[in-house]
Structure formats: structure tokens, C-alpha cells
UniProtKB/TrEMBL annotation, chains A, B:
Keywords: DNA-binding, Transcription, Transcription regulation
Name of the molecule in the record: LacI family transcriptional regulator
Phylogenetic lineage: Bacteria, Bacillati, Actinomycetota, Actinomycetes, Micromonosporales
Annotated HTH lacI-type domain residues: 17-71
Entry-linked PROSITE patterns: HTH_LACI_2
Length: 344, 344
DNA sequence: CTGAAAGCGCTAACAT
DNA sequence: ATGTTAGCGCTTTCAG
């Protein structure tokens, strides 16, 4: 005898049994079967057992779609639209969201935009058609007005990492400026003046915040020797590596580096590998093994970020109608060696 | 004038407009409105325009739930039930799945089990009630018979990383034994005999495969000096770190280490940090910055794994009824230094 | 080209 | 304790 198969289903797919069929087999009415299977009161012990037996026999499974339609066309799904789940930052956020939602019986549905604003919009539309209860977005596009109508019609939005532009909505943001300022001050306090800043796309709000914070620290210290070493719009690991290599050939070279996200830090680490007199380095975003490599970072808690976003969403779902809230996730400089190297 | 708000939706949620209302406003029948909005043929230019205008005015959005119910109670959703999305291995797999599904207009829904077999079962049930088109599972529990009925009723299953037990179903697995054998041979060829093996829960199939492959390599070389250094059921980073520290205090100590997944490798790297005469190290699973740290690994492609799984699922959804297939993802030893250190 | 009627599978409201 | 009727919002016949 062979094992039951899950593979060849397409061959014999005689449509799933419905509640009506269960009721017929059990010799009761549709509604009684419904009551029995939903553990509602007012079902005789024996009747309930008969219904459950019939359901088992038929391999019946409740049709959640029909139920949702009848109950008001709103699912237990919460959508997350983000740039790239393969980035550990986003996946940590997603896992924080998922865990918190589950506490409330909600389910996370994810979609990647690959940082494409048009795809983002299409995915948002798709989620709304699916009647998600709330929508969490790490926006790539810059204008979000198109979401406003939705918000007014019962689908709460929560923005993550980047603030909403063009509408009021809940958001969970990182203290970008504060973290970057702290990084700048940290390097200054270790004697650095020629500090290179390697940043991602400057049009993104978090990157702007980090740039601003860094500049504040420099201005406050009356240092402007960093300016020749500013490099923005470096968007991938490879470009980051090249950029850092180029910076090191300058004369004089920078004595320190500040990279404004985990991808750029990875690129910098590659460029610095085996370098005899590596400049000091601080990276924004903590990462696995930073302790092993000894990389000083501006750390924050992405799982907490997801959790807070899920909480905001849940509050709205539960009927909270107050003004939009913004939660700021704090940052902290974690010294591990690379950021404490003195200027050469 | 203030920005449109997305926050206070709960206050005024007058139920979403329906197609009937759009039709009324446009002065056409329900069906005509449906045709116009779905770009079906046989709609006069002017009529279509009027309908679309009415829809915009009302802020109408199609109710995907009603559509799905009518079209056969099956969604465009594909479920993924996995252990822990925060683990970069799983999130890479998820991103491979997501990308491939999107090619076919399918949407990924994810849920984490935290490696809990009961939660896994509950989540699978929940997905089935939601009428997912296919279900991808990285199973934590060991018996999967309970899925068999579903498989016969039109919901294809694909198992990832761990083979199905108790039913026939498509699967995508890593060449665990082959990779581990290659790692063993690699260390042997560099002169190692006292090789420590640090493994995760031995009841998990991938771990067993890796153990077996390693043992095969040792047996083939007639080496059994590794046996005193076998440590299994090491399940988290912290325990891995402790275990490696303990191993290093043995007399004589092992001259090489093989860690059988990314978590254990991380723990080993922490234990080895700053060690004057670190043993050679090979880790199963590649990871970010392994190149920077110089860690030799048994690499494989988790994104490809996700992609293959999504392809199998899509084939089944499209009606393929052949026997269950298993795709094996190949592995490769990537030498980066740590695995090539000679015995002390 | 347009419309009327039926019904997907379920639950809510109202009998009995 | 059980049954009957209606209808969620849409698409699918089948007629005009």
C-alpha cells in the first residue's frame, strides 16, 4: 500500500464538500450543522457529534472566504508592503510584526516592491482589493495621497521607516538624526576631522535624516574637513565597496568612515579587508557578527519596530479614532573597536 | 486646510460602496458596470467612461472576497509556514518564493511557527480555511499525514528543507549529505583528524543528513579520531558558543571544527574570536560577510530554493498531476581561509 | 451592446 | 433545540 498522495490532486478534484452536504449527511439542517461546527450554544450533544462525524467523513473544511463575505467582507489579514524581505533589516521588522499580530489573531501577508514605486502602488491596490484589515508600508514612492481615500474608509495605514507624505497616518520611525549625530560626535571625540560620509539615495527620508544629524554634529564642532569626503546615492554593496576604495586613494585620505546603512557598511568592510591602516568605521544599523568583526554601529531594534507598527495597526482595527501617532525607535552607539581607532 | 487623514477611519466607516451603487450612479445595470470595470468586451466607450467616473466618485474598490467566492472559492494566495523568518536563511527562501509567485500573479502569505509543531498545524489549518491555492511548508513536526486529505482535495503542498513524512508531496531539499561529506573531505585533505562536529537537533532530517555525510567522509578515510568531539542538539547561538569553548579545553583539543548551520557557525565564531591558535572551521550555510571574516562554508542558494518551490507549486496549481517531485539544491565548499588552516 | 436572474458557501435574523 | 429565509458582492448564465 502506498502512502496517501498530496501530489496528484489535479486529477480528482471533485470540489470541496460544503456545509450543506455535511448537513445532509448528518440529517440536520444547514444552520444546525453551522452551529455545531462553530461550537455555538443550543446544539444537542448527540446532534453535534453526528455533524462532526459527517464533516470528518467528507473531509469538510470551512470556507473562510464565504464566511468573510457574509460577516462583512473583511479578513483577518494585515498586509506588509516593503522593499526587500531578503534584507535582514526588513525581515527582522517583518518577524516583529508577525509575532505581534498573532497575539490578536491576525495574519501577515507580505509583498516585496524591490523599491519600485509603481509596483508598490499596484501591491497596495491588490491588498486593498483583498480587503486587508490594515496595511503596513515601508514606502518607496514619495507621494502617498492616493492612500488617503482608503484611510477614510476603514483601512488603517501604518508607515514604517519612512514618514507618510501627503496624508496623516500612524508611523514608526527610527531616530535617524539622533543616531547619526551620535556617530559623528563619537568620531569627533576620538580625534577625527576628515570623516567620510557614505550614504544611500539622498531622496529617501531616513537617509536625509542621517545626513542632517551628521552635519549637525560636524557644525556644532566647527569641523568642515569632512566635506570633500561626502558620497551620496550609493545604493548597493558593490558601489559602496568601490566608493570606499576610491575614498582611500584621496590625498589626504579620510581618517574615519560613517556608512549610513547595513548594505553600505558591508561594502565598506569589504573594501577595508586587509587594509594595513584602516580608517575608523561606524555603520548605521546593527548586524549579525558585528561583534565578531568588531564593528562599531549605530544600533536600533528592528523587531521592536515591527512590533510597534503592529500595535498601532491593531489599535486602529480595534476602533481607535484619535489623531495619527508617530513612534520613534531610539538608537544607540555600540562601540566594538572600529569606531574607536585613532586617526592615523 | 489639513491633509487628508488616514488615521481616524473608525469614526466614519459608512461601509464601502458596492458595484450596485456604482451601477446606480452611472445609470446602468449591475452587469454593465461589472463589465466596464473588468475591461470586458461589449461595452460602449461612453458607457464605460461613465461607469469608471462613478466608481472614482464613490471611491469604489472591487471586493476580492466576493469575487473569489463566486469564482470558485479559491484565492490567489499561497501560504508559507516556516520556522523563523528572522533567520536570514528562511527570509532568503521567502524572498525567492515571493518573486517567483509574482510572475504568476500569486501572492505569498507567511506565518512563523517558532519551530513549534502544534502551532505549525494550527497555521496550516488556518491557511487551508482561507483557501490558499498552495501551501509551502518548512515542517517542524515530524508527522504530516494530517495533510494528506488536503492534498487529495486540490491544495498542493511543497515541502522545503525537510522531506514530507507520511505522505507523498513535492519537496525542495538541500544536498545535505553531499555538502557535509565535501566539508569532511576538505578538512581531511588539509591534514585534520581530530575534527569536532557541532550539530543542531539530531531529530531534524537536514541535520541527520549532514551528520551522515560527515561520517561517510570520515569512514572512507578510516578516521575515527573525531568521535570524542561530536556534539549534537546544540540549538542556539549561545549554546554553540559555550560548546565550542568547552571543546577547546579538551586535551588534546580538536584541530578543526565543522558547524552544521548558520546559527552554530555564528556561535563558533564568537568562541573563536581572539583565540591565538584557532582551529580550522567550516560552516554549513553561507552568510553575509563570511568573505570579510574569511570563513570557509558549505554554500547553497536559498533564493533558488524558494524559487524552485514556488515553481513546483505553480505547476500543481496549473493542473500538473504527475508523481511527487523532489528538487535537490546543490552545495559547494567555498574556501575563504578558515577551512584551510593546517592542524596546530 | 445591455440587462435580469441565479447562486458561490456561509451566517444573521427570525421563526418554530 | 432546530429549521427557514434572506443576503453578503460579485460573476455567470441566458435573454433581449
Amino acid at each position: 500500500m502506498s502512502a496517501p498522495r498530496a501530489a496528484g490532486e489535479a486529477v480528482d478534484n471533485p470540489r470541496r464538500p460544503t456545509l450543506t452536504q455535511v448537513a445532509e449527511l448528518a440529517g440536520v439542517s444547514l444552520k444546525t450543522a453551522s452551529r455545531a461546527l462553530n461550537d455555538e450554544p443550543n446544539v444537542a450533544e448527540a446532534t453535534g457529534a453526528r455533524v462532526r462525524q459527517a464533516a470528518d467523513l467528507l473531509g469538510y473544511r470551512l470556507n473562510g472566504i464565504a464566511r468573510e463575505l457574509r460577516r462583512g467582507a473583511t479578513s483577518a489579514l494585515v498586509g506588509l508592503v516593503s522593499g526587500d524581505l531578503a534584507n535582514p533589516f526588513y525581515s527582522a521588522v517583518a518577524s516583529g510584526i508577525e509575532r505581534e499580530l498573532r497575539q490578536h489573531g491576525l495574519q501577515l501577508v507580505t509583498a516585496n516592491t524591490d523599491e519600485d514605486a509603481e509596483l508598490e502602488r499596484a501591491l497596495v491596490e491588490a491588498f486593498l482589493e483583498r480587503r486587508v484589515r490594515a496595511l503596513l508600508v515601508v514606502p518607496s514612492g514619495d507621494r502617498h495621497e492616493y492612500l488617503a481615500i482608503e484611510g477614510n474608509r476603514g483601512v488603517p495605514f501604518v508607515f514604517l521607516d519612512r514618514p507618510p507624505d501627503g496624508l496623516e497616518a500612524d508611523a514608526v520611525l527610527i531616530d535617524n538624526a539622533g543616531g547619526a549625530r551620535a556617530a559623528g560626535e563619537h568620531l569627533l571625540s576620538h580625534g577625527h576631522r576628515r570623516i567620510a560620509l557614505v550614504a544611500d539615495l539622498a531622496r529617501m527620508a531616513p537617509q536625509r535624516g542621517r545626513l542632517d544629524g551628521f552635519v549637525q554634529a560636524m557644525d556644532a564642532a566647527g569641523n568642515d574637513q569632512w566635506r570633500p569626503y561626502l558620497r551620496t546615492d550609493v545604493h548597493d554593496v558593490h558601489r559602496a565597496e568601490e566608493t570606499v576604495r576610491e575614498l582611500l586613494t584621496r590625498d589626504p585620505p579620510p581618517t574615519a568612515l560613517f556608512t549610513t546603512n547595513n548594505r553600505l557598511t558591508t561594502g565598506a568592510l569589504r573594501a577595508l579587508r586587509g587594509h594595513p591602516a584602516a580608517p575608523a568605521l561606524i555603520g548605521f544599523d546593527d548586524f549579525d557578527l558585528a561583534d565578531v568583526i568588531g564593528t562599531t554601529v549605530v544600533a536600533h531594534d528592528p523587531v521592536a519596530m515591527g512590533r510597534e507598527a503592529a500595535r498601532l495597526a491593531h489599535r486602529r482595527i480595534s476602533g481607535f479614532g484619535g489623531p495619527a501617532q508617530t513612534v520613534i525607535i531610539p538608537t544607540e552607539v555600540v562601540a566594538r573597536g572600529s569606531g574607536e581607532r585613532a586617526p592615523a
